[in-house]
Design the sequence.
């Protein structure tokens, strides 16, 4: 006879259905299942069926992004539709700094090409309520000097303006390409990595080449120096290179140097007082010298903000299909609502509408309001950054206007009857 359909898979129901199936056979029609050792075998069968059904149900649930609960499975499913979950983000501050090299005549080798470089790595210590945090820069910053004439004396000054400094610790890691290893992987061992700070260099036969993070498949060829970042288990990240068809593949024996910043998320927000702790060198001709004096105090133009935790699984499940539907293009108002939160941290919600809905209509404009997770409105610096980056995704000729939210606070009285 055929098996019963199992619509209820709890232990007691499975046990009952197994007994009913055995009783349907003439060999066990008068058998006392409860009073014999056969009941132990039935319990074993029911328990095994229960465990199998539970595992099968969980495995099937993890195959769909709507029902999956394990982060590794959710990020893998999102990757299949081209969505990369946002990493944790360092709090970023904007600061100014200057270096006074003094009277030009005291330089041992005066050179009109004198410049100054702040080395990648630790830059300053920032004070936040509850403690101090390290702020770093992900790459070297070089500026030329300006000549300031005072009382007929030339003085060389290097001005570093609007430097973006990132909360967290600067980490470097090196790999060696070995083609004898099948499917060699390049995994960054740290968690809490801000993937926007990852910098990759490949050294081949003494020649150093910088690789850029993959942004757009257009104009990518076998010579494009690109890398991909994807999230793997335990919130760690893997660096992937091209295959000499789409993107250049590092040669055997090449050294891969990766640097990045690991951060403390939202804890780094709010720092405005900084003490310089970095390394500055002067570039005179082809030589470099450490700078130990003439360094001004740091002035802050924008306190640290936008630090955030890694994107939650609920956010990934919500945004991944919507970003896939927009194909990373901002055409409709809904495209903006899904694209902007996927690109920027510290955003709670986005509302967008076309200018044609206004009276009188404002054609060719899109109006966007953003509610941040921390605070009431976003900073002007972040507005400019968002508008600049949206140009890569929007239709030419469409202008974006970012408006501040207007909050309406309602006080109400309620009467409860029971």
Sequence:
């Amino acid at each position: 006879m055929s098996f019963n359909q199992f619509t209820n898979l709890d232990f007691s129901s499975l046990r009952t259905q197994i007994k009913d199936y055995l009783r349907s056979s003439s060999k066990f029609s008068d058998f006392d299942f409860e009073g014999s050792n056969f009941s132990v075998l039935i319990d074993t069968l029911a328990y095994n069926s229960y465990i199998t059904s539970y595992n099968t149900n969980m495995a099937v649930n993890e195959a769909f992004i709507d029902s999956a609960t394990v982060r590794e499975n959710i990020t893998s499913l999102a990757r299949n539709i081209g969505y990369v979950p946002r990493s944790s983000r360092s709090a970023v501050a904007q600061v100014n700094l200057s270096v006074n090299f003094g009277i030009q005549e005291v330089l041992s080798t005066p050179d009109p090409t004198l410049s100054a470089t702040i080395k990648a790595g630790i830059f300053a210590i920032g004070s936040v309520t509850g403690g101090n945090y390290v702020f770093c820069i992900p790459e070297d910053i070089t500026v030329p000097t300006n000549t300031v004439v005072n009382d007929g004396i030339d003085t060389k000054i290097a001005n570093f303006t609007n430097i973006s400094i990132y909360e967290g610790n600067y980490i470097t890691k090196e790999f060696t390409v070995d083609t004898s290893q099948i499917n060699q992987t390049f995994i960054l061992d740290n968690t809490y990595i801000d993937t926007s700070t990852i910098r990759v260099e490949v050294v081949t036969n003494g020649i150093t080449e910088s690789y850029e993070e993959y942004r757009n498949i257009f104009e990518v060829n076998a010579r494009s120096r690109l890398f991909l970042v994807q999230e793997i288990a335990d919130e760690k990240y893997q660096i992937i290179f091209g295959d000499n068809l789409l993107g250049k593949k590092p040669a055997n024996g090449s050294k891969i140097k990766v640097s990045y910043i690991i951060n403390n998320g939202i804890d780094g927000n709010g720092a405005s007082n900084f003490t310089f702790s970095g390394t500055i060198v002067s570039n005179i001709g082809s030589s470099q010298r450490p700078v130990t004096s003439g360094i001004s105090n740091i002035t802050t133009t924008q306190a640290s903000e936008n630090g955030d935790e890694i994107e939650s699984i609920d956010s990934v499940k919500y945004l991944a299909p919507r970003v896939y539907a927009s194909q990373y293009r901002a055409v409709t108002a809904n495209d903006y609502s899904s694209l902007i939160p996927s690109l920027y941290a510290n955003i709670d919600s986005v509302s967008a509408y076309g200018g044609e809905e206004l009276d009188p209509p404002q054609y060719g404009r899109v109006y966007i309001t953003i509610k941040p997770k921390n605070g009431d409105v976003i900073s002007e610096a972040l507005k400019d950054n968002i508008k600049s980056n949206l140009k890569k995704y929007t239709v030419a000729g469409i202008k974006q206007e970012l408006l501040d939210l207007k909050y309406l606070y309602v006080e109400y009285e309620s009467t409860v009857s029971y």
Summary: The first strand starts at residue 92 and ends at 103.
